Amino acid sequence: MESRREALKLWLAGAVGMPAMTSRAAAASLNDDLASAQETSCGQSVVQWPRGIEGQRKADLGDGRYLNPVLAGDYPDPSVLKDGDDYYMTHSSFDASPGLLIWHSRDLVNWRPIGPALRKPLGTCFAVDIAKHGNRYFIYIPFMAAAWSKGLRSFANIYVIHAPSMHGPWSDPIDLGVTDLIDPGHVVGEDGERYLFFNDGKRVRLSRDGLATAGPVEAVYQAWRYPETWITEAYAPEGPKLFRRGDYFYLVNAVGGTGGPPTGHMVVAARSKSINGPWEHCPHNPIVRTTTAEERWWSRGHATCVEGQDGRWFMVYHGFENGYRTLGRQTLLEPIEWTPDGWFRATGADLSRPLRKPLGSTVPNGLQRSDDFVDLSLGTRWSLYASAPGEAGRVRTQAGALLLAGKGDGPHNCSPLTQQVGDRAYDVSVDVELVGGAEAGLVLFFNDRLFLGMGIDGQQMRSYRGGKLSYWREPAPATRRLHMRIVNNHQIVTFYYSLDGKTWTRHGVRSEVSGYNANTVDDLLSLRPALFAAGKGEARFRRYRYRALS
């Protein structure tokens, strides 16, 4: 590693970022908002991120440039709507309830949360599409049947919700009667009719109000196929996003599989002068693809194309961060350029370097993760995992505490309260008190098969690793109230506990958690902090604190 002095010289020349050991005073003298970190692992170039709320990394460098991700953490399958000078975005929310958190931006880089559009999911929520038609807003949703789902026709079911504003109020989901398809993409044809495209080249015409189908599902398109020698997860054409520019409709697809090998997922495009085809494949396909495991961003795909305020165009898509698959698929922004023959090319390369920021005013960026539980922030700061629509009543706030009613007999089946994170290293803590015959605690939760953390039942501490109760018997005091803390320091996880929240005892076992990712348990989620309460009582949580580490 270079010396701090050498790194400082290079940073001042605009070549690299400051090393992680730089003192706060030295960093402040350069830029009060810029926290810099140097990395040389995996052959990656030096990177730097500003620090926002609670030290969370953010994309806007403050000098007319940005550094991906624009939304750090598990925000996959982005769907973006340009509405005048405003941009709105949401993502696959899967088993989160409430779901479909709406984000707002005016420059595609700084995003603030508005609130959840889907108060009561009917199933696992896959990739959606936001649309505006007339003066009304629509979100087309594929619900996958979950264990707690009721009344769904099939394993995959297409619904729609609508509202007079992106701020809501949003309607209850309306069944479109389309089954066994996912990833709807809305478009208005040259005939003025509305259509939904789906995975695997399927399409259906909609009624004029967009709330019903007006014809059969038909096959209308075959996505570009890559050479058989390429290393991918599966062909799997999905995520169609359509837009019209000039004389052409453009159809942007994802192929190659969203997980699996880092070189699998990719963005491909086609165009046609009619919504009915024929579709011509882009000669530049794939538009985006990770070509080597040395790149910073893996499995890049599922893109929405959108025009910036200055006429420049961009793609918003997702990708896994090299070395940090535990964070899930994060939202990336890449510029594109239009070629003289009417196609577009990606110009951001592997996105490990800062890029020129789109024009537009800046909205307050980010979301505070810490919580004093004055208000119940379900759907923004917290969400229930795999929770049936009526279960939100398990959660309430009272006198600066969050009360969570027990369910099941452990973290795996209690629908814990989870929180997204986007930092490579962080420290979380909370004050846990038992009420009645509950077990409760703090965990890092991937899904019901993979988690780790601590719980107390009044008699002993229970330790969890690998999605199950650990053999380790931690000699923590028998108590009904305990402060718990988890530090995830670049995939090394350490537990702490305290009776007073001041003097901490380190748990006897540390864990390395890079394997807690989608490829381990075939589930496209992320490792994130969670509060759980199991059994017949409830738990009272106070003073939850989140702090990003450099």
TrEMBL record:
Annotated ranges, domain Beta-xylosidase C-terminal Concanavalin A-like: 370-513
GO function terms (MF aspect): hydrolase activity, hydrolyzing O-glycosyl compounds
One GO BP: carbohydrate metabolic process
Domain of life where this protein originates: Bacteria
Annotated site (Important for catalytic activity, responsible for pKa modulation of the active site Glu and correct orientation of both the proton donor and substrate): D183
Active-site residues, Swiss-Prot/TrEMBL: D77 (proton acceptor), E238 (proton donor)
Pfam families: GH43_C2 (PF17851), Glyco_hydro_43 (PF04616)
InterPro entries found in the cross-reference section: ConA-like_dom_sf (IPR013320), GH43_C2 (IPR041542), Glyco_hydro_43 (IPR006710), Glyco_hydro_beta-prop_sf (IPR023296), Glycosyl_Hydrlase_43 (IPR051795), TAT_signal (IPR006311)
Keywords (A to Z) from UniProt: Glycosidase, Hydrolase
Recorded family membership: Belongs to the glycosyl hydrolase 43 family.
Stated name of the protein: Xylan 1,4-beta-xylosidase
